[in-house]
Automatic annotation (TrEMBL):
<keyword id="KW-0482">Metalloprotease</keyword>
<dbReference type="InterPro" id="IPR001915">
    <property type="entry name" value="Peptidase_M48"/>
</dbReference>
<dbReference type="Pfam" id="PF01435">
    <property type="entry name" value="Peptidase_M48"/>
</dbReference>
<dbReference type="GO" id="GO:0051603">
    <property type="term" value="P:proteolysis involved in protein catabolic process"/>
</dbReference>
<keyword id="KW-0472">Membrane</keyword>
<keyword id="KW-0645">Protease</keyword>
<keyword id="KW-0812">Transmembrane</keyword>
<keyword id="KW-1133">Transmembrane helix</keyword>
<dbReference type="GO" id="GO:0016020">
    <property type="term" value="C:membrane"/>
</dbReference>
<keyword id="KW-0378">Hydrolase</keyword>
<dbReference type="GO" id="GO:0004222">
    <property type="term" value="F:metalloendopeptidase activity"/>
</dbReference>
<feature type="domain" description="Peptidase M48">
    <location>
        <begin position="180"/>
        <end position="347"/>
    </location>
</feature>
<feature type="transmembrane region" description="Helical">
    <location>
        <begin position="117"/>
        <end position="140"/>
    </location>
</feature>
<dbReference type="GO" id="GO:0046872">
    <property type="term" value="F:metal ion binding"/>
</dbReference>
<keyword id="KW-0479">Metal-binding</keyword>
<keyword id="KW-0862">Zinc</keyword>
<protein>
    <recommendedName>
        <fullName>Peptidase M48 domain-containing protein</fullName>
    </recommendedName>
</protein>
């Protein structure tokens, strides 16, 4: 190659998308470009120094780009590799042009910043880091859960019982308590769960509900017994709550809240307000709401436990069917938006499980009936119940 002659590529009309090989001579008066034609002839183009725009670009940002508006041929775009031109840049005869080229040398190898792409990359990095934090905290939850002694869990449940329900609230005598405790004792015995001091507490409330606390405390509202058609239905609910204890779901919900607070603290620094909100929620027992997978796990475990205890699991299904009817046709829509499975979905799962795994099995009915006359709440008990739950 002659001195001052640099190999390059040119893009020009009529096919501006195709690169053609060329050589560029930076002469004293002008830039001369020698382009090989399709017919083998060499064409010579002249470019004025002042009208030539210089930038840096290319796939890896290592090329000098020269753009020129030719009077006859239209726009010309010439690329010369940086490593090719830089060694001879001091030989460029036009001082002003040479200065412009030299000012761009530090930019070689740096691709132009695409703002939109940069934002996408940054967002992906942030999402990746958040994912790592969440994955770590989830992994940490399992480690922490495995290291929490049963006696600590029992202490948590006992503290909630003492703070929310005292001897003046809990019903501790009567036929309903005896039957409830008998059913509960049978289920606990057949569950094979160890490490917990299981206790069932009957509390006056018109709500048809029951829930499990950490440590094996099961709270049953009198409204549940009043709405039950048989002891077997209540046995199904008790078996379900025992599974929540078995899988330590209540404790997991508490740890989930702690994990959320930790993540908020990582993201926003001070999580004192959020921690206060979590504490208030715990006092009102809102932490005892389980997610879909936990409810399904407890339902399946309940059916298994009922069968082990010799109790017909189909009345457990009947309870959910009746709940579905009470939901006044909104149940299927509710299933999509609630964190819990719908009553219809739960009853269908129970039927499917019984049909597939326990078809033809016979069960003895539970001896005893609920004395629903005992469940009429005095105004005094209702008031105490409402005050306790609002504190």
């Amino acid at each position: 190659m002659e001195r001052g002659l640099f190999k390059a590529a040119i893009f020009m009309e009529p096919d501006s998308s195709r690169a053609r090989a060329c050589e560029v001579l930076f002469d004293y008066a002008e830039i001369v470009v020698y382009v090989s034609g399709d017919d083998g002839d060499e064409n010579e183009l002249s470019l004025e120094y002042p009208d030539t725009v210089i930038t840096v670009g290319g796939i890896d940002g290592s090329n000098f780009l020269f753009d020129y508006e030719h009077q006859e041929l239209g726009p010309l775009h010439i690329q010369i590799s940086g490593p090719v031109l830089v060694p001879g840049v001091h030989e460029l005869p036009d001082i002003e042009f040479r200065s412009r080229v030299q000012s761009l040398i530090p930019s070689l190898g740096r691709e132009p910043v695409n703002t939109e792409a940069a934002i996408r990359v940054f967002s992906l990095i942030i999402l990746f880091l958040l994912g790592c934090c969440i994955a770590f905290l989830v992994y940490l939850e399992d480690i922490v859960l495995a290291r929490i002694p049963f006696k600590w869990e029992n202490a948590i449940g006992s503290a909630v019982i003492e703070s929310q329900f005292g001897p003046e609230i809990e019903i501790t005598s009567g036929q309903n308590v005896l039957l409830l405790r008998s059913i509960f004792a049978n289920l606990v015995d057949k569950s094979g769960i160890s490490g917990y001091d299981f206790k069932v507490h009957l509390v006056p409330s018109e709500q048809a509900n029951a829930f499990a606390l950490p440590g094996g405390h099961i709270v049953v509202y009198t409204g549940l017994i009043h709405s039950a058609s048989s002891p077997e239905e209540v046995a199904g609910i008790l078996a379900h709550e025992i599974q929540h204890v078995r899988f330590r779901h209540s404790l997991r919900r508490i740890l989930d809240t702690v994990r959320s607070m930790a993540l908020m603290s990582i993201l926003f620094g001070d999580a004192s307000e959020l921690i206060a909100m979590a504490r208030n929620a715990a006092v009102k027992m809102k932490l005892l709401s389980y997610d879909r997978s936990q409810e399904t796990e407890a339902d399946r475990g309940a059916v298994e436990l009922l069968v082990k205890a010799g109790i017909d699991p189909l009345p457990f299904r009947d309870f959910f069917r009746r709940m579905a009817e009470m939901e006044d046709g909104t149940d299927r829509l509710y299933a999509y938006f609630s964190t819990h499975p719908s009553s219809i979905v739960r009853s269908d799962m129970i039927v499917s499980m019984v049909s597939a795994e326990y078809a033809g099995k016979k069960y003895e009915p539970i001896r005893g009936e609920w004395q629903k006359d005992e469940l009429k709440l005095s105004d005094e008990l209702k008031l105490k119940d409402e005050l306790k739950l609002k504190d």
